[in-house]
């Protein structure tokens, strides 16, 4: 499959991309919450992927993790400023957390039983951590951060299991997740329209590059 085929698939809506990109960012608090929760969830996956059996990906992940942890820290820094700021700022931080908590949990994919490729990917060690293990890690690292901010945990059922040392948590609405994958999330249509517009707007530039390359070739002959 060529690069052009992959781009065609993306623009036609056939390619998959992370479900999280189909949720809106409404205000500055969302910029903080996305960095903290969304990049934070991505890092949990990416740290594990440094040991994936596909070498080029594993090697690239090392630098990607460093970059991503910067995003997560920047996001948490914004959340600290807002949570320790005025009442209005704190309310914005809480609202952003409430809206992004569940979509962040969905980023790890459905529970193992409902995950289509999980077993095969685990057998080949492409994937080294199950969806549920990743989600548990994320919950365990994020709840103490919510408490530090003095915000309410969006999941009213979440609580520390003293025996296991892990937090018990509620599942997100998996029917919403599968609906977003099907193209029915709050922003799927907008996101695809933006991608297609950017591609169309860039046509003149791609043509220019080709024309330039042709001229160079003629000059070289
Ligand atoms: Fe990032």
Describe it:
With 221 residues, this protein is mainly alpha-helical. It has one domain: Ferritin, core subunit, four-helix bundle (Ferritin). Helices cover 67% and strands 3% of the residues. Helix 2 (28-49) runs antiparallel to helix 3 and helix 3 (55-83) runs antiparallel to helix 4 (87-106). The model has no long low-confidence stretch (mean pLDDT 95). Fe (ii) ion binds at residues 39, 68, 71. Fe (ii) ion (FE2) binds at residues 39, 68, 71.
Provide the descriptors you would attach to this structure in a database record:
Ferritin, binds fe (ii) ion, mainly alpha, 221 residues
Bound molecules: fe (ii) ion
Secondary-structure element order, N to C: HHHHHHEEHHH
Spatially, the strands of the biggest sheet line up as: 1-2
In CATH, what is the homologous superfamily? Ferritin, core subunit, four-helix bundle
Number of DSSP helical runs: 9
Q: Any idea what the shape is?
A: globular
The third-level CATH topology is Ferritin
């Amino acid at each position: 499959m060529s690069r052009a085929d992959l781009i065609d698939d993306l623009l036609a809506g056939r390619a998959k991309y992370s479900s999280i990109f189909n949720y809106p960012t409404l205000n500055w608090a969302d910029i903080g919450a996305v960095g903290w929760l969304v990049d934070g969830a991505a890092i949990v996956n990416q740290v594990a992927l440094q040991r994936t059996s596909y070498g080029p990906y594993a090697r690239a992940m090392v630098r990607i993790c460093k970059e991503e942890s910067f995003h997560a820290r920047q996001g948490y820094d914004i959340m600290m400023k807002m949570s320790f700021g005025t009442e209005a700022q704190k309310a914005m931080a809480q609202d952003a957390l409430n809206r992004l908590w569940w979509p962040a949990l969905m980023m790890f994919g459905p529970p193992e039983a409902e995950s289509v490729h999980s077993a095969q990917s685990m057998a080949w060690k492409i994937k080294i951590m199950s969806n549920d293990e990743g989600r548990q890690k994320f919950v365990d690292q994020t709840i103490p951060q919510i408490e530090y901010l003095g915000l309410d945990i969006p999941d009213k059922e979440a609580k520390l299991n003293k025996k296991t040392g892990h937090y018990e948590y509620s599942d997100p609405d998996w029917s919403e997740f599968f609906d977003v994958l099907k193209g029915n999330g709050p922003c799927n249509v907008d996101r695809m329209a933006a991608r297609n517009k950017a591609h169309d707007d860039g046509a003149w530039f791609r043509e220019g590059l080709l024309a330039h390359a042709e001229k160079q070739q003629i000059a070289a002959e």
